[in-house]
Amino acid sequence: MNKLTKEILKKNNNREEFISEENQEIYTNMVVYLRGSDLTEYNQEIVREDLIELILDGQQRGDNIQKVMGGKYKEICDEVIDAMPKKTKKDKIVEVIGTSLNSLWILGVIAVIKNLAVSLISKTFEFNFIMSIGDIITTILIIILSNAVVWFISRTALNEKQTNKKVSFLKTWVVLLVVFAAIILPSIYFDTTALNIPLIIAVISVLLLFFTSKIINSRVY
Amino acid sequence: MISSQMLKGMLEGCILEIICKQETYAYEISKLLEEYGFGKISEGTIYPIILRLQKSELVKATVRDSNSGPKRKYYRLTEKGIVSLYEFKVNWKELEHAINNLFIKGGNEDE
């Protein structure tokens, strides 16, 4: 995220504090829906800024979000998305690389801590960074599934609410079980070592990933 | 009440006309449309249209303090917007003429 976008984001975070509790849920769902769109982060914040001011202006008059937006939230968001400039191919590539590097350095830190703990607990003090084929599959699956979850949440944020609570509860559990199985099982069944390097090299690699992700993400418009 | 499908194509031109008359903001546009007999048109409906007009550089926005609380975006027409509004009016006259012709020559009893 570049500097200008960060500034508007900060301003919007402060302004949205003034949105009343009554209007909060629909406003949040609209923003989540916009987050999953093809708009650049900068344009998402520009639209968010306008939405906040429209809602606050409405609140001032005693109108709730339903009256201000006319109730057709998804339709309005789709029209807004349609009216704004979209991400270019370059924007999309930079964003995917930035997000992937972010996920990689975070998962890298977790893996480094895990390997360090193993070395300390087993008292071998070898300080090696070992990754099995299963660990690599798990890492890839975590990145894919987390992106899929974010995409699903943003795409369904303005859908009609599920009325059958039992079905909704069961669906959530089935999805969670499949996700956990997909993440945990590979590391159990594919334990062949794929990578064995000194821990210090792993730490340096994670730091490199961290700084590269910061540089790339600062170029995301 | 005018159907929303019918309004869709017309609203851009009507909003341009309102903005041409005075520098204004979303809620005021919504109120003025209601006063002119367009029915209730929320700011949520007007906002994407204004975004489209801004994208086409037909209107420009200025953020200013309002008398009653939050800052507001006030919109005014650009040179390009004035030309576009003129074209809309010409097109509207042609359409009005064509529809009237159709209704009259079609032997509509109301005419």
TrEMBL record, chain A:
Organism encoding this protein: Alkalibaculum sporogenes
UniProt KW Oxidoreductase keyword: no
Name by which UniProt lists this protein: DUF1129 family protein
Origin superkingdom: Bacteria
Keywords: Membrane, Transmembrane, Transmembrane helix
Keyword Signal: no
Positions of transmembrane segments: 93-117, 129-153, 173-190, 196-216
From TrEMBL, chain B:
Start and end residues of each Transcription regulator PadR N-terminal domain: 15-83
One Pfam family recorded for the sequence: PadR
Signal peptide bounds: none
Highest taxon above the source species: Bacteria
SUPFAM superfamilies listed in its UniProt record: Winged helix' DNA-binding domain
InterPro entries documented for this protein: Metal_resp_DNA-bind_regulator, Tscrpt_reg_PadR_N, WH-like_DNA-bd_sf, WH_DNA-bd_sf
Protein name (Swiss-Prot/TrEMBL): PadR family transcriptional regulator
The species this protein was found in: Alkalibaculum sporogenes
